[in-house]
Amino acid sequence: MSKLSTKHLLGIKYLQKEDVNLIFETADHFKQVINRPIKKVPSLRDITIANLFFENSTRTKLSFELAEKRLSADVINFASSSSSVTKGETLIDTVNNILSMKVDMVVMRHPNPGAAYFLSQHVDAKIINAGDGAHEHPTQALLDGYSMREKYKDLTGKNIIIVGDITHSRVALSNIFCLQKMGANVKVCGPLTLIPKYINSLGVEVISNLKEALEWCDIAMMLRIQLERQDTKFFPSIREYTQQYGLNKELLDSLSKKITIMHPGPINRGVEITSDVADSNQSIILNQVENGVAIRMAVLYLLAGRVD
Amino acid sequence: MQSSDRIILDPKQFELTIKRLSHQLIENYGDFKDTVIIGLQPRGYFLAERIHQELIKIDTQLDIKLGSLDVTFYRDDFRRQDTPIIPNKTEINFIIEDKKVILIDDVLFTGRTIRSGLDAMLAFGRPKTVELLVLINRRYKRDLPIQADYIGKNVHSIVSERVKVNWKNIDKEDKVILYTPE
User: Fold this and answer.
1) β-strand B162-166 against B175-179: which pairing, if any?
2) DSSP letter at A155?
3) Residues B17 and B152: beta-carbon distance below 8 Å
4) pTM of the prediction?
5) Cβ contact B74–A25 (<8 Å)
6) Minimal CA–CA distance to A282: which of A218, A188, A223, A224?
């Protein structure tokens, strides 16, 4: 297979297993490109990409922008805080105005779940979802899956635990879809108030005790508590959360095997993970960031499509 | 093989051609000091490997670096096809800055692949000189001003015809055929 089965990247849910493999194989080549003395290729030199960020981002925005520039695309950036959105313009109007400037692809982050899907139904451009509310963050899951594949070659039968605020995490949902497509077993761990009720319908079990969860897994993905999405209190205090679900070196060293630690960022050091764990040799957090550029280059390359 | 297929090089001629090209290179490059060989992926690399083996067979003292270069990301026909072009591996574990490069491909036709290859190569440094070696030079349909310095065989063919280079390690036999696709 040499073509993705979808026209947009709205979520991992809409991808086939073969799509995920194609993206990974293409990313292998781009990873090599970004490690060369000259890190740029001219593939997308006739494409203009708009990065629309209606929500704050550091890593994802920089990573997309770098990927676009490494592929020689022309890039325009948009942040909602400094735009006419604050004057009451609708999403479709904003995007259609940008598209009138002859933009071929849109990378969008938006606080509302389904915003990328909505846009794909109404505008004539390729849409890449860079995170839509608590729904999906497909490129993050792809780079996580890619980083695991890099370390373990094959994820079939590997046990992966996702720890933390599952309800408010788009990274968790996208990762569940992605890792299951790759053949891994996924379970989640966290306070029951932060685990969605429907989680079992995804074939995902819950382990409420962190130590037990870590003993089960080969890879632990630690998530941040998304206080900005929590309108009510889901647990008594951050301190209590850390005592129950924070990963520290003592706990890590007490396990019967060496597990791999991942985190999609931003890290709240001392809350879900301590610094000595985040910076230990079992952590592949910085590999995730490096792989993010290669994965996004692959996605942009594969979605660029035919020139008319 | 179909009745319309024409053999351009049979296994014996194939071997002689590889030997001749290798001797020509030795004649011009001597001890191959500061010289590297780069084969274009996918099928130009097979020729580069074979020439590399032959050179070492002729002079066992030679130490020549061999690399493979994929031109996919540098092609000028990306987004002119329905499906994205899937890349091959690039393996150049040396710097080509100030080196004499022998660029190798199996068939030279429009010259567009070589143009991409020259661009792709610059990502690894600025070479001192570049020469082009091809097994088959198809004449009469060059889109760009590109010519080979070393040629296995010149072929006069029409555009609708295709040239296929077979390699014994993957296609069972070394030979070159000219055919018309259905």
Assistant:
1) antiparallel
2) -
3) yes
4) 0.88
5) no
6) A218
Tell if the CB–CB gap between A26 and B87 is shorter than 8 Å. yes
Angle made by CA atoms A69, A75, A77, in degrees to the nearest 5: 125
Domain B11-21+34-73+87-153 has CATH 3.10.20.30: no
Q: Is the Cβ pair B83, A38 closer than 8 Å?
A: no
A162 sits in which H/E element:
strand A159-163
A58 touching B, CB under 8 A? no
Position A86 scores a pLDDT of 67
Q: Which of B81, B89, B122 sits opposite A306 (nearest CB)?
A: B81
Nearest residue, CB atoms, B73 vs list A2, A41, A302? A41
State which residue of chain B sits closest to A297, comparing Cα positions. B73
Which pLDDT belongs to residue A307? Answer: 65
Report the residue from B70, B74, B124 with minimal CB separation from A37.
Answer: B124
* Integer Cα distance of A160 and A154 in angstroms: 13
Q: Please, what are the domains in chain A?
A: 12-137+291-303 (3.40.50.1370), 138-288 (3.40.50.1370)
Tokens for A165, please give them: 């605020």
CB A231 within 8 A of CB A253: no
Give residue-wise pLDDT tens across range B53-74.
Answer: 999 999 888 899 999 999 999 9
Judging contacts by C-beta atoms under 8 Å, the chain B residues touching residue A35 are none
Task: Report in angstroms the alpha-carbon separations of A131 from A10, A203, B72.
Answer: 9, 23, 30
